[in-house]
Structure prediction request, 240 residues.
Amino acid sequence: MTRLFVSDVHLGADAEPAIARFLGFLEREAARAAALYILGDLFESWVGDDDRTPAALRVCAALRTLTAGGVPCFVMHGNRDFLLGPGFAARSGCRLLADPVVAQLDGEPVLLTHGDALCTDDHSYQELRSIVRQPHWQQRFLALPLAHREALADEVRAGSRAHTARTVPYIMDVNGEAVATAFRTCRVRRMIHGHTHRPGVHETIVDGSAAQRIVLGAWYEQGSYLSCERGEYRLRELPR
Ligand code: MN
Prediction:
């Protein structure tokens, strides 16, 4: 049976084509899979499990159909939707994964991570990340009224767009030393991540032995996913 991996679907109220693509993917490819792993940024923004926008409700209902049909679905936080919590899990039937996590896939330990923590050259982003991932900060944020949280999230997204526009591309990519450290400390020879929107399979050498880093693609223009069948990994694109 085949396991499927996606990330950076970036679903939101104004992302109707992406929602249609993703719901189609859940009904077709994912419904036949052994498991679905969503490695972060499923949503463009998530300000709390009380989010009842029609887009969020539709996506949760579709995930619920998938999981109720017997396909386990694992969801990791991304930098956009790191506030997905137990309410989301209950509504969708998905299980939340820690980031990073080492999964045993076909007898092999594989590191799964969203990927933003590997972008260590982006110092201002890492500083922001270290603040918003603190439980104390999250409790205070979640205590604000929903409309206030949504307004703050819009501001953060605008700031993030401006930051991306003025930052040289290599800074937005993973740092080679951070990648090597992750391979080493997690004792794996394969990792799967998203976040950079640069899909590809990178063969590398860590401490003298071969290692592979698979990067998932984003869903802005076209759906893309990774399939794993009996230890064989393949990046695929959905037909347009
Ligand atoms: Mn991301």
About this structure: The first helix runs from residue 16 to 27.
